[in-house]
Prior knowledge:
Blueprint: H1 2-7, E1 14-17, H2 20-30, E2 34-37, E3 48-51, H3 55-67, E4 78-81, H4 92-95, E5 100-106, H5 113-119, E6 124-129, H6 131-143, E7 147-150, H7 156-166, H8 168-183, H9 191-209, H10 211-214, H11 218-221, H12 224-237, H13 242-256, H14 262-268
Helix pairs in contact: 8-9
Amino acid sequence: MGKLLAQAGVPILFLAARRIGKARQAVRFVGKGRAVTLDSPQASAAPIILLTTSDSALAGVAEFLARSAGRARWTGKVVLHTCGSIPSSILAPLKRRGAAIGSLHPFQTVPSPAAGFRNLRGGFWAIEGDAKARRAAGELVKTLQGVAFRIRPGEKTLYHLAAFLVSPTTVTLMERSTRLLKKAGVPRKIAPLMLARFVGETTRNFAELGARRALTGPAVRGDWQTLERHIQALRKAAPDLLPVYAALLRAMLRLARRRLPHSLRKALC
């Protein structure tokens, strides 16, 4: 995110970390700014401060910054965090020092800084917090050519859960599908490419057609014999996947408005 903002012309004054080496590493990646430690007075010198720590570190960082400065250093400033499951109220120590607090979170998977540089521009961003902080967050999102939307602070866990259900779970399912494809004789090199193309088309269909029309496969057609063969094959090849398969199948049938035959219900028990 910092690198994208820097390239868009946003002044990046300082990049701070607990250890100066980490801050210097961030400066090298972003290409702008000066490396400082969190306890440096300059760590809070900018009018807008972005806290991009892990969820577990956020409360401690907010407390540390609030303790390290008097009220004068925070009055009029905006502090935003980028954690998806935590509301901006976790920054209350800084609000008590006079700062406007908020959060902005990209609804995007970011496995590395390089991936974030590639995929954060033009994305969708959840924002919440004080009015001044929301305005600042909205301007940053606009700079990144993205779409900002407000989210209920008390329901951020549900928002984050929605992302969890479709991103790391999809990767996990794709990895397990890769194993099944290899057992079926599909060459190791092309299995991931096949799945990436297949899942990519599925997501496009979902966006263009909606969930029910995008849903395909034997459960939608009522092809119960194929599903029975799936279950038999899983028992031999990957029995630990049976509970996952059963849960997904039941959710799929509810979406397709079909009922599972008694014989299949017994097979899944």
